[in-house]
Amino acid sequence: MQKRERAAVVAEELEREIPNPEVPLRHHDPFTLLVAVVLSARCTDARVNLVTPALFSAAPTPQALAARQPHEVRELIATCGLADSKAEHLVELSRILCEQYGGRVPSTFEELEALPGVGHKTASVVMNQAFGFPAFPVDTHIFRLARRWKLSAGSTVQQVERDLKKLFPRKAWGKLHLQMILWGRTRCPARGCHPQCPICARLI
After folding, report:
1. Tell me: the pLDDT tens digits for 44-96?
2. Which of 80, 108, 117, 135 has a Cα-to-Cα distance from 127 of 20 to 30 A?
């Protein structure tokens, strides 16, 4: 089976099983989404969602977060991995948003990726979910599934992202990103797919 045929199977099954995927990180605007995605590095979305209510209550805007000291932020996000560096990044990026962007989150990859603690995957999530720009962020679940389903043989996240973008229509990238993450968590985990996984049944 060729890669495009495999991609068609994946899209068909994901649309059948998860037609309306929800954004897993709770947020209410581009800034809180950016903060939540930064916190999600090496941390589960579930854990981030437990931490952010108190953080957003204490510092709901870039201005409020920039006014905090890193150690104050760290206390609020202590149960997230890499809390020390994340606290410093969040305070600094908030300061930059206030000083350079009038307190708004920029809407280009170049500007987002220049912010402390923001890499390409984080920028891709924000660009897609906050601004509706077509992007295909590749996390560990998507990287694993793309290789398991033989959609990509790439050994890096960058290679896998390029391969997936070639296989799926641009307008579907953001939705597929969410669908594949949810599938990887519930139906096709790292230790092997569940026996009832219809995608693996058709592709492996």
Report:
1. 999 999 999 999 999 999 999 999 999 999 999 999 989 999 999 999 999 99
2. 80
**Active site (annotated) includes residue 166:** no
> Annotated catalytic residue: which of 3, 45, 139, 165?
139
CA distance 130 to 168: 21
Residues 6+ apart with CB under 8 A from 159: 152
What is the mean pLDDT of the segment spanning 137-143? 95
CATH pick for 3-21+135-203 out of 1.10.1670.10, 3.10.50.30, 3.30.70.260, 3.30.470.20: 1.10.1670.10
Active site residue: 86, 121, 163, 175, which one? Answer: 121
Q: CB pairs under 8 A, 24+ apart, for 153-158?
A: 157/121, 158/120
Q: Residue 31: CB partners within 8 Å, gap ≥ 6?
A: 61, 62, 97, 104, 105
